[in-house]
Protein backbone atom coordinates (compact mmCIF):
# COMPACT_ATOMS: atom_id res chain seq x y z
CA UNK A 1 0.00 0.00 0.00
CA UNK A 2 1.05 3.62 -0.36
CA UNK A 3 1.92 6.17 0.80
CA UNK A 4 3.47 5.46 4.19
CA UNK A 5 2.75 7.65 7.19
CA UNK A 6 5.93 7.44 9.27
CA UNK A 7 8.28 4.84 7.79
CA UNK A 8 8.62 3.11 4.45
CA UNK A 9 8.22 -0.39 5.97
CA UNK A 10 4.48 0.35 6.38
CA UNK A 11 4.10 -0.22 2.63
CA UNK A 12 4.97 -3.93 2.89
CA UNK A 13 3.00 -5.68 5.64
CA UNK A 14 2.49 -9.31 6.56
CA UNK A 15 -0.54 -10.16 8.70
CA UNK A 16 -1.16 -6.44 9.06
CA UNK A 17 2.26 -5.65 10.53
CA UNK A 18 5.03 -3.75 8.69
CA UNK A 19 7.94 -6.10 7.98
CA UNK A 20 10.83 -5.84 10.44
CA UNK A 21 13.86 -3.62 9.87
CA UNK A 22 15.96 -6.77 9.48
CA UNK A 23 13.68 -8.24 6.79
CA UNK A 24 13.38 -4.91 5.00
CA UNK A 25 17.15 -4.47 4.94
CA UNK A 26 17.75 -8.07 3.84
CA UNK A 27 15.31 -7.94 0.92
CA UNK A 28 16.18 -4.36 -0.05
CA UNK A 29 19.84 -5.19 -0.66
CA UNK A 30 19.07 -8.56 -2.22
CA UNK A 31 16.77 -6.94 -4.83
CA UNK A 32 19.00 -3.87 -5.26
CA UNK A 33 22.16 -5.89 -5.88
CA UNK A 34 20.41 -8.28 -8.28
CA UNK A 35 19.10 -5.34 -10.33
CA UNK A 36 22.48 -3.63 -10.23
CA UNK A 37 24.21 -6.78 -11.54
CA UNK A 38 21.74 -7.38 -14.38
CA UNK A 39 20.84 -3.90 -15.61
CA UNK A 40 21.36 -3.03 -19.26
CA UNK A 41 24.79 -1.35 -19.60
CA UNK A 42 23.44 0.75 -22.47
CA UNK A 43 20.68 2.28 -20.33
CA UNK A 44 22.18 1.96 -16.89
CA UNK A 45 19.38 3.18 -14.67
CA UNK A 46 17.69 1.58 -11.68
CA UNK A 47 13.89 1.41 -11.27
CA UNK A 48 12.31 4.55 -9.81
CA UNK A 49 11.36 4.64 -6.11
CA UNK A 50 7.79 3.29 -6.30
CA UNK A 51 8.67 0.75 -8.97
CA UNK A 52 11.58 -0.56 -6.91
CA UNK A 53 9.39 -0.93 -3.81
CA UNK A 54 6.76 -2.76 -5.88
CA UNK A 55 9.35 -5.26 -7.17
CA UNK A 56 10.64 -5.65 -3.63
CA UNK A 57 7.13 -6.20 -2.22
CA UNK A 58 6.44 -9.00 -4.72
CA UNK A 59 9.79 -10.57 -3.82
CA UNK A 60 9.01 -10.37 -0.08
CA UNK A 61 5.58 -11.97 -0.55
CA UNK A 62 7.03 -14.80 -2.63
CA UNK A 63 9.95 -15.48 -0.28
CA UNK A 64 7.78 -15.29 2.86
CA UNK A 65 5.17 -17.55 1.19
CA UNK A 66 2.10 -15.46 1.98
CA UNK A 67 -1.28 -17.09 1.26
CA UNK A 68 -2.81 -13.94 -0.17
CA UNK A 69 -1.36 -10.63 -1.35
CA UNK A 70 -3.55 -7.54 -1.39
CA UNK A 71 -1.90 -5.07 -3.76
CA UNK A 72 -2.99 -1.44 -3.89
CA UNK A 73 -2.40 0.41 -7.15
CA UNK A 74 -0.05 3.40 -6.91
CA UNK A 75 -1.62 5.84 -9.40
CA UNK A 76 -4.45 5.04 -11.79
CA UNK A 77 -4.16 1.45 -12.88
CA UNK A 78 -3.72 0.95 -16.61
CA UNK A 79 -0.05 2.01 -16.67
CA UNK A 80 0.78 1.51 -12.99
CA UNK A 81 3.68 -0.82 -12.25
CA UNK A 82 1.48 -2.94 -9.95
CA UNK A 83 -0.58 -3.88 -13.03
CA UNK A 84 1.79 -6.65 -14.13
CA UNK A 85 -0.29 -9.29 -12.32
CA UNK A 86 -1.90 -11.26 -15.14
CA UNK A 87 -4.42 -13.34 -13.22
CA UNK A 88 -5.43 -11.82 -9.90
CA UNK A 89 -8.20 -13.64 -8.03
CA UNK A 90 -10.43 -10.55 -7.98
CA UNK A 91 -10.23 -6.79 -8.64
CA UNK A 92 -11.91 -3.92 -6.81
CA UNK A 93 -12.36 -0.21 -7.55
CA UNK A 94 -13.45 2.09 -4.73
CA UNK A 95 -15.04 5.55 -5.08
CA UNK A 96 -13.55 7.54 -7.94
CA UNK A 97 -12.29 11.06 -7.32
CA UNK A 98 -10.46 13.79 -9.19
CA UNK A 99 -6.74 13.40 -8.41
CA UNK A 100 -3.39 13.17 -10.22
CA UNK A 101 -5.01 15.00 -13.15
CA UNK A 102 -1.69 15.59 -14.93
CA UNK A 103 -1.28 11.80 -15.23
CA UNK A 104 -4.81 10.39 -15.24
CA UNK A 105 -6.81 13.11 -16.99
CA UNK A 106 -8.99 15.97 -15.84
CA UNK A 107 -12.43 14.31 -15.92
CA UNK A 108 -14.02 11.46 -13.98
CA UNK A 109 -14.51 9.56 -17.25
CA UNK A 110 -10.79 9.73 -18.11
CA UNK A 111 -9.88 8.66 -14.59
CA UNK A 112 -12.39 5.79 -14.74
CA UNK A 113 -10.73 4.61 -17.99
CA UNK A 114 -7.35 4.49 -16.24
CA UNK A 115 -8.77 2.71 -13.18
CA UNK A 116 -10.54 0.13 -15.34
CA UNK A 117 -7.14 -0.82 -16.75
CA UNK A 118 -6.70 -3.29 -13.88
CA UNK A 119 -9.57 -5.49 -15.11
CA UNK A 120 -8.47 -8.86 -16.43
CA UNK A 121 -10.20 -11.40 -18.72
CA UNK A 122 -12.38 -13.81 -16.80
CA UNK A 123 -11.47 -12.28 -13.42
CA UNK A 124 -14.44 -10.93 -11.42
CA UNK A 125 -14.38 -7.26 -10.46
CA UNK A 126 -16.42 -5.15 -8.07
CA UNK A 127 -16.97 -1.46 -7.68
CA UNK A 128 -19.11 0.78 -5.48
CA UNK A 129 -21.76 3.33 -6.43
CA UNK A 130 -20.25 5.82 -8.90
CA UNK A 131 -21.67 8.65 -11.03
CA UNK A 132 -23.43 7.23 -14.10
CA UNK A 133 -20.96 8.20 -16.84
CA UNK A 134 -17.80 6.98 -15.06
CA UNK A 135 -19.65 3.76 -14.19
CA UNK A 136 -20.46 3.27 -17.87
CA UNK A 137 -16.77 3.75 -18.68
CA UNK A 138 -15.86 1.04 -16.15
CA UNK A 139 -18.49 -1.25 -17.71
CA UNK A 140 -17.07 -0.66 -21.20
CA UNK A 141 -13.53 -1.35 -19.98
CA UNK A 142 -14.70 -4.62 -18.42
CA UNK A 143 -16.42 -5.68 -21.65
CA UNK A 144 -13.26 -4.95 -23.67
CA UNK A 145 -11.41 -7.67 -21.80
CA UNK A 146 -11.58 -10.65 -24.12
CA UNK A 147 -10.20 -13.94 -22.99
CA UNK A 148 -7.85 -16.37 -24.68
CA UNK A 149 -7.46 -18.65 -21.65
CA UNK A 150 -9.55 -19.98 -18.79
CA UNK A 151 -8.27 -19.89 -15.18
CA UNK A 152 -7.68 -23.42 -13.94
CA UNK A 153 -10.75 -24.98 -12.37
CA UNK A 154 -13.15 -22.28 -13.62
CA UNK A 155 -15.82 -22.70 -16.27
CA UNK A 156 -17.98 -20.25 -18.15
CA UNK A 157 -21.60 -19.71 -17.21
CA UNK A 158 -23.84 -17.33 -15.34
CA UNK A 159 -22.08 -15.95 -12.26
CA UNK A 160 -23.95 -15.66 -8.93
CA UNK A 161 -26.27 -18.56 -9.73
CA UNK A 162 -23.51 -20.77 -8.40
CA UNK A 163 -21.75 -18.05 -6.48
CA UNK A 164 -18.98 -16.86 -8.81
CA UNK A 165 -17.73 -20.36 -9.56
CA UNK A 166 -18.23 -19.67 -13.26
CA UNK A 167 -17.39 -16.67 -15.33
CA UNK A 168 -18.19 -14.95 -18.59
CA UNK A 169 -15.46 -14.47 -21.22
CA UNK A 170 -15.01 -10.78 -20.44
CA UNK A 171 -14.29 -9.36 -17.01
CA UNK A 172 -17.58 -9.76 -15.07
CA UNK A 173 -18.12 -6.45 -13.27
CA UNK A 174 -20.58 -6.04 -10.39
CA UNK A 175 -21.80 -3.18 -8.26
CA UNK A 176 -21.62 -3.70 -4.50
CA UNK A 177 -24.90 -3.21 -2.65
CA UNK A 178 -24.97 -0.74 0.24
CA UNK A 179 -23.55 -2.04 3.51
CA UNK A 180 -27.06 -2.02 5.04
CA UNK A 181 -27.91 -4.96 2.76
CA UNK A 182 -25.33 -7.11 4.59
CA UNK A 183 -26.76 -6.38 8.03
CA UNK A 184 -28.92 -9.05 9.62
CA UNK A 185 -32.03 -8.45 11.67
CA UNK A 186 -31.38 -5.94 14.46
CA UNK A 187 -27.60 -6.16 13.99
CA UNK A 188 -25.72 -3.16 12.61
CA UNK A 189 -22.24 -3.83 11.26
CA UNK A 190 -19.60 -2.23 13.44
CA UNK A 191 -16.66 -0.61 11.62
CA UNK A 192 -13.25 0.10 13.09
CA UNK A 193 -12.83 3.04 10.69
CA UNK A 194 -14.94 6.14 11.32
CA UNK A 195 -16.74 8.14 8.64
CA UNK A 196 -19.75 7.33 6.45
CA UNK A 197 -17.50 6.94 3.38
CA UNK A 198 -15.91 3.85 4.97
CA UNK A 199 -19.22 2.00 4.62
CA UNK A 200 -18.82 1.65 0.85
CA UNK A 201 -15.20 0.55 1.36
CA UNK A 202 -16.43 -2.09 3.82
CA UNK A 203 -19.04 -3.38 1.34
CA UNK A 204 -16.33 -3.68 -1.30
CA UNK A 205 -14.00 -5.47 1.12
CA UNK A 206 -16.71 -8.03 1.94
CA UNK A 207 -17.23 -8.90 -1.74
CA UNK A 208 -13.49 -9.20 -2.41
CA UNK A 209 -12.96 -11.38 0.66
CA UNK A 210 -15.88 -13.68 -0.18
CA UNK A 211 -14.65 -14.14 -3.76
CA UNK A 212 -11.18 -15.15 -2.58
CA UNK A 213 -12.56 -17.54 0.06
CA UNK A 214 -14.82 -19.12 -2.53
CA UNK A 215 -11.93 -19.57 -4.93
CA UNK A 216 -10.14 -21.40 -2.11
CA UNK A 217 -13.13 -23.73 -1.78
CA UNK A 218 -14.10 -22.50 1.68
CA UNK A 219 -17.53 -23.57 2.95
CA UNK A 220 -19.99 -21.83 5.23
CA UNK A 221 -19.59 -18.36 3.78
CA UNK A 222 -23.16 -17.32 4.52
CA UNK A 223 -26.13 -17.58 2.22
CA UNK A 224 -26.37 -15.26 -0.76
CA UNK A 225 -29.37 -12.98 -0.58
CA UNK A 226 -30.93 -13.34 -4.02
CA UNK A 227 -31.43 -10.08 -5.88
CA UNK A 228 -35.18 -9.72 -6.65
CA UNK A 229 -36.00 -9.83 -10.39
CA UNK A 230 -35.81 -6.39 -11.96
CA UNK A 231 -33.62 -4.95 -9.19
CA UNK A 232 -30.42 -6.38 -10.60
CA UNK A 233 -30.21 -3.89 -13.47
CA UNK A 234 -32.89 -1.29 -12.53
CA UNK A 235 -31.43 1.42 -14.71
CA UNK A 236 -27.83 0.64 -13.72
CA UNK A 237 -25.18 0.05 -16.39
CA UNK A 238 -23.62 -2.61 -14.13
CA UNK A 239 -25.51 -5.50 -12.43
CA UNK A 240 -25.90 -5.45 -8.68
CA UNK A 241 -24.15 -8.23 -6.78
CA UNK A 242 -26.28 -9.99 -4.18
CA UNK A 243 -25.52 -9.34 -0.53
CA UNK A 244 -24.82 -12.20 1.86
CA UNK A 245 -24.63 -12.90 5.57
CA UNK A 246 -21.04 -12.07 6.64
CA UNK A 247 -19.22 -14.70 8.67
CA UNK A 248 -18.07 -14.05 12.25
CA UNK A 249 -14.50 -13.66 10.99
CA UNK A 250 -15.63 -11.01 8.48
CA UNK A 251 -17.54 -9.15 11.20
CA UNK A 252 -14.44 -9.20 13.40
CA UNK A 253 -12.28 -8.01 10.48
CA UNK A 254 -14.51 -4.99 9.86
CA UNK A 255 -14.63 -4.23 13.59
CA UNK A 256 -10.87 -4.50 14.18
CA UNK A 257 -9.66 -2.65 11.08
CA UNK A 258 -7.45 0.34 11.82
CA UNK A 259 -5.59 2.60 9.43
CA UNK A 260 -3.50 5.25 11.15
CA UNK A 261 -3.82 8.80 9.88
CA UNK A 262 -7.28 8.22 8.41
CA UNK A 263 -10.21 9.60 10.45
CA UNK A 264 -8.06 8.98 13.53
CA UNK A 265 -8.70 10.61 16.90
CA UNK A 266 -5.55 10.90 19.00
CA UNK A 267 -5.92 12.36 22.53
CA UNK A 268 -2.60 13.67 23.90
CA UNK A 269 -2.98 15.44 27.25
CA UNK A 270 -4.84 18.73 26.80
CA UNK A 271 -4.70 18.42 22.98
CA UNK A 272 -6.89 16.14 20.89
CA UNK A 273 -5.68 15.58 17.33
CA UNK A 274 -8.07 14.72 14.51
CA UNK A 275 -6.00 13.25 11.70
CA UNK A 276 -6.93 12.55 8.11
CA UNK A 277 -5.10 12.25 4.80
CA UNK A 278 -7.86 13.61 2.56
CA UNK A 279 -6.48 15.40 -0.52
CA UNK A 280 -9.27 15.44 -3.11
CA UNK A 281 -12.52 17.41 -3.18
CA UNK A 282 -14.68 14.38 -2.40
CA UNK A 283 -12.38 13.03 0.32
CA UNK A 284 -12.10 16.43 2.05
CA UNK A 285 -15.90 16.69 2.02
CA UNK A 286 -16.05 13.25 3.64
CA UNK A 287 -13.40 14.35 6.15
CA UNK A 288 -15.43 17.45 7.08
CA UNK A 289 -18.55 15.35 7.62
CA UNK A 290 -16.57 13.02 9.90
CA UNK A 291 -14.90 15.87 11.81
CA UNK A 292 -18.16 17.73 12.39
CA UNK A 293 -19.72 14.54 13.68
CA UNK A 294 -16.73 13.57 15.83
CA UNK A 295 -15.68 16.95 17.23
CA UNK A 296 -18.20 19.67 16.49
CA UNK A 297 -21.42 18.06 17.64
CA UNK A 298 -21.07 19.77 21.03
CA UNK A 299 -21.05 23.52 21.58
CA UNK A 300 -17.66 25.02 22.28
CA UNK A 301 -17.25 26.45 25.82
CA UNK A 302 -17.44 30.26 25.95
CA UNK A 303 -14.59 30.67 28.46
CA UNK A 304 -11.90 30.25 25.78
CA UNK A 305 -10.71 26.97 27.29
CA UNK A 306 -11.04 25.27 23.92
CA UNK A 307 -9.64 26.44 20.59
CA UNK A 308 -9.86 24.68 17.26
CA UNK A 309 -6.71 24.76 15.15
CA UNK A 310 -6.40 23.60 11.54
CA UNK A 311 -2.97 22.16 10.73
CA UNK A 312 -2.88 21.91 6.94
CA UNK A 313 -0.49 20.57 4.33
CA UNK A 314 -0.88 19.50 0.71
CA UNK A 315 1.59 18.28 -1.90
CA UNK A 316 1.81 18.09 -5.66
CA UNK A 317 -0.40 19.91 -8.12
CA UNK A 318 -3.52 19.91 -5.96
CA UNK A 319 -5.82 22.94 -5.81
CA UNK A 320 -5.15 23.89 -2.19
CA UNK A 321 -7.47 26.92 -2.29
CA UNK A 322 -10.38 24.71 -3.34
CA UNK A 323 -9.59 22.19 -0.59
CA UNK A 324 -9.33 24.90 2.06
CA UNK A 325 -12.66 26.40 1.03
CA UNK A 326 -14.34 23.10 1.90
CA UNK A 327 -12.99 23.38 5.46
CA UNK A 328 -14.74 26.70 6.17
CA UNK A 329 -17.79 25.08 7.86
CA UNK A 330 -15.47 23.78 10.60
CA UNK A 331 -14.99 27.36 11.95
CA UNK A 332 -11.39 26.99 13.08
CA UNK A 333 -9.94 29.62 15.43
CA UNK A 334 -6.45 29.37 13.96
CA UNK A 335 -4.80 27.82 10.91
CA UNK A 336 -1.21 26.59 10.63
CA UNK A 337 0.27 25.82 7.21
CA UNK A 338 3.20 23.45 6.74
CA UNK A 339 5.67 23.80 3.87
CA UNK A 340 6.82 20.70 1.99
CA UNK A 341 10.49 21.20 2.57
CA UNK A 342 12.73 21.01 5.63
CA UNK A 343 15.91 22.99 6.24
CA UNK A 344 18.72 22.05 8.53
CA UNK A 345 20.86 24.94 9.75
TrEMBL record:
Its EC number is 6.3.2.17. InterPro entries: Folylpolyglutamate_synth, Folylpolyglutamate_synth_CS, Mur-like_cat_sf, Mur_ligase_C_dom_sf. It comes from the Eukaryota. GO terms for cellular component: cytosol; mitochondrion. GO terms for molecular function: ATP binding; metal ion binding; tetrahydrofolylpolyglutamate synthase activity. GO terms for biological process: one-carbon metabolic process. Keywords: ATP-binding, Ligase, Magnesium, Metal-binding, Nucleotide-binding, One-carbon metabolism. It is an enzyme of class 6 (ligase). Pathway: Cofactor biosynthesis; tetrahydrofolylpolyglutamate biosynthesis. It catalyses: (6S)-5,6,7,8-tetrahydrofolyl-(gamma-L-Glu)(n) + L-glutamate + ATP = (6S)-5,6,7,8-tetrahydrofolyl-(gamma-L-Glu)(n+1) + ADP + phosphate + H(+). The keyword Repressor does not apply. SUPFAM superfamilies: MurD-like peptide ligases, catalytic domain, MurD-like peptide ligases, peptide-binding domain. Transmembrane segments: none annotated. Belongs to the folylpolyglutamate synthase family. This is tetrahydrofolate synthase. It comes from Phaetusa simplex. The lineage of its organism: Eukaryota, Metazoa, Chordata, Craniata, Vertebrata. The gene is Fpgs.
